[in-house]
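Bug report

Summary: structure tokens for superoxide dismutase differ between web form and batch submission.
Environment: batch mode, default settings.
Steps: 1) Submit the sequence below via batch. 2) Compare with the web form result.

Sequence submitted:
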Amino acid sequence: MYLIFQDKASVARATIMARPASAVWQVVSLFVALQFSAVAYALRDRGCPTFGTNTSYGPPPLPLSYDGYMPAIDNETMWLHYNRHAGGAIANFNAVLARYPALQTMPLAAILEQLGLPRFVQKYKLLANDTTALRNNGGSMYNHAIFWRIMTTYNTSSPSVLSYDLATKVNETWGSPTAMLDALRSAAGSLFGSGWAWVIYRPDGTLGIASTPNQDNPIMRRLVSAASEGVPLIGVDVWEHAYYLKYRNVRSAYLLQWVNLVDWSYFQRNYDLAKRGKIDSIYC
């Protein structure tokens, strides 16, 4: 059953009101919901960057046109962000990866997850400069793939289509989805310099807020703080190129508008994958 609850009391009431008539009906309802979820994202996931005959990654497609994110993000910012900034990182990552054939069949998430482990660096004989380049450019690729697809058309109405499980976790942690986004805005607004703020699925199964500098992200074990480790479910870019043309140096104004772009169905999708340990599928 897919609902969203704005407070803990609503969750409690729904627990009583939403009991199915039979166990069979409950199973059928869940199966149908999962099928619709799979179909809804099948086309979006076709753009997953994978190695081709030239052993290189390509950019994931934007779900919307460049002007589809207005009024929160303007057309010019989206074009520059997608093609120049994020696109440049993909080219740089491919250039480094070309020197390491053993990494070319490895999922991006697996590389990023292990870059902070000395045995991984030693096993693949990674040079220090190349390790840094993989971290920065690979991190950018993973982060932006989430960023592009966590955004949908501007909508200020109440969120919908969260499962009972996820809605319960959100409400137990923050009180409501709106409060969760407020906490995300606070973390993003207080981050010094460039970086990202995240809603994450922690290793212990709880949800939390994290922020990371530069192009780091929560899957980078030992490269980020223990408190920031987890699987990213929502990510917001607070590098200045993400907002400066429209908002100048007023990051808070950008964040206030950006939260109205969050695609709740993609948040649900990422949560379901994180629970199953499908870290690379979130990137894809």
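Above is the batch result. After comparison, the two runs are identical; trailing whitespace caused the diff. The CA atoms of residues 36 and 42 lie 10 Å apart. The beta strands are 195-201, 207-213, 231-237.
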